[in-house]
Amino acid sequence: KGSADAILSCSGVNRWFGGVRALTDVSLDIRQGEIFGLVGPNGSGKTTLVNSITGFYPPQQGTIRFEGRPINGVRPHRIASLGIARTFQNVALFKGMSVLDNILMGRHAFMRPSALASLFYWWWAEKDEIRQRDKVEEIIDLLQLESARDEPVEVIPLGLQKRVELARALAAEPRMLILDEPMAGMNQEEKEYIVRFILDAKEALNLTVLIIEHHMDVITAICDRALVLNNGRMIAEGPVREAVNHPAVIAAYIGG
Ligand code: ADP
C-alpha cells in the first residue's frame, strides 16, 4: 500500500470505542485529483474513518499519510493547516454573522500565528488581506453566493447554507476536501446544485475530494473510485461501478 500518486493513504487502520470495534484493518489510497466515495450502511464506520483522518479520533493502530507525511496523532487544527478541509453532516455555521463573514472564518486555518509571522505581521497582513479578498471573491463567484453575501446566514434556505459551508471549507485553500453527507436534508433540486458545485470547485481549485454518502446514485454519478464499508470492514474497493455492484455490497444493503 501507499502508491506513489496517492495524496492520502490509510494502511491497516483500526479504531475501538471501548469494546466496540468501529474500524477493522481499513486501507485505502486516494489519488491526487480524484473524487473518492466512502459508502456503507448506517453505523458502518464512515464517520469514524473521516474522524481518524482529520485527527478527531486518531486510530489505535495503523498509519495515515497525507502527501507522504504521517498524520496519525496530529491534532485536528494542524491537519487542517496541512491542507485538509472538511464539512460536517449537520450545518455548523456562525449564526448572527453574514454569509461573507462565515466564509472569511474559513481563513483561520490559514492564518496560523508564529513568531516569524508576528514579526512581519503588518507587512504580511496587508499582503494577505489583498490575497484573501481575491480568494474569497473567487469562491463567492464559483459557488454563486454573490446575491446572499450580506445576508445573516440563519435566514437563508438550508440548501444555500450548505453552499456557504462548502465555501468556508474552500476558503482555507485545501488540497483535499472531505464532505460528510453533503446532500443530507436536501431536496432534489438542491442536491443537483450541490453536485454541480462540488464538480466545479474540484476543477477550478484542483482539489481531491473524499465524500461520504449513502445514496448510491450520487456516488456513481460523481465518484471515480469508492470504498464500501460494512460493520467497520472493507467489503469492496475500486472503480466506482465495480465497487458498488460488488455482490458483498448488494448483500449488505439488502440484508440490512
Ligand atoms: P457511519 O458514519 O457509517 O454511520 P460511525 O462511524 O458513526 O458509522 O459508527 C461506527 C461505529 O462506531 C458504530 O457502532 C458507532 O456506534 C461507533 N461509534 C462511533 N463514534 C463513537 C463514539 N464517539 N463513541 C462510541 N462509539 C462510537
**In CATH's first tier, which class applies?**
Alpha Beta
Q: What portion of the residues fall into strands of 2 or more residues?
A: 25-35%
Mind describing the biggest β-sheet? 6 strands, mixed
What's the alpha carbon Rg, rounded to whole Å?
A: 19 Å
Mean of all residue-level pLDDT scores: 89
Please report the distance between the alpha carbons of the first and last residues.
Answer: 31 Å
Q: What is the number of helices? A: 10
Order of helices and strands: EEEHEEHEHHHHEHEHEEHH
Ligand list: adenosine-5'-diphosphate
- Residue stretches low in confidence (pLDDT < 50, at least 5 long) are none
* CATH homologous superfamily grouping: P-loop containing nucleotide triphosphate hydrolases
Characterise this structure:
- The chain is an alpha/beta fold and 256 residues long.
- The chain is built from ten helices and ten strands.
- It has helices at 46-53, 76-82, 99-105, 115-119, 121-142, 158-171, 188-205, 216-222, 240-244, 247-255, and strands at residues 6-17, 20-31, 35-39, 61-66, 69-70, 84-87, 176-180, 208-212, 225-230, 233-239.
- The protein has a six-stranded mixed sheet with strand order 6-7-8-3-9-10, sandwiched between helices. The protein has a four-stranded antiparallel sheet with strand order 2-1-4-5, with helices on one face.
- The longest helix is centred in the middle third of the chain and has 22 residues, at 121-142.
- Bound molecules: adenosine-5'-diphosphate (ADP).
- Adenosine-5'-diphosphate (ADP) is lined by residues 17, 20, 22, 40, 42-48.
